[in-house]
Amino acid sequence: MKPHAEMDEVWPRDGRIRLVGRFHGLTGPAAGGWELLLVRRDDTGRSLSHPVGVRGGRFEGELPVTDLAAAGTAGTAAVAEWDVHLTDGTVRLRAGRRLDDIRGKKKIMVFPEQSVPEAGGFRVRPYYTVKDNLSLECRAGGPS
User: Fold this and answer.
1) Residue 98: Cβ within 10 Å count
2) Beta strand ranges found along the chain (DSSP E)
């Protein structure tokens, strides 16, 4: 299995998405200097980053959904998908949950959606992809 950021907890609430996990498969120690890196799937040149705390091979960080609202969904559709990674500037690890023997999380694990009223009802929802990676779905305002 390739090195990755194994997600233990995903907490979408109170205008933030809190992520807690551990590093899996790194050849060296996971020291400080890591950050959450969100990469827009349909425009990989667009990204957002937020610092994470690292201690003993575990990480914890959070991102405000207003940052995603500011980045918007402009582009080809009213939906933007952002893939979650962790990086130290040299190594980039895809965030996901693969060590729990639950396959097909996309259809099993459903996280609550958060809206950003000041951004016209912009909505953000974490989800697991068909490969059990963690991504964020962002939708422009309007009905769900």
Assistant:
1) 19
2) 4-13, 16-24, 35-40, 47-55, 58-64, 79-87, 92-96, 114-116, 122-128, 134-139
Helix, coil or strand: residue 119:
helix
Rounded to 5 degrees, what angle do the CA atoms 104, 110, 116 make? 140
Q: Which residues are within 8 A (CB) of 48 and not within 5 positions of it... i.e. 6 or more apart? A: 37, 38, 63, 67, 68, 71, 82
> Other C-beta atoms within 10 Å of 109: how many?
14
Q: For position 121, what pLDDT does the model report?
A: 86
CA–CA dist 105, 42 (Å, integer): 22
pLDDT band at 41 (very low <50, low <70, confident <90, very high): very high
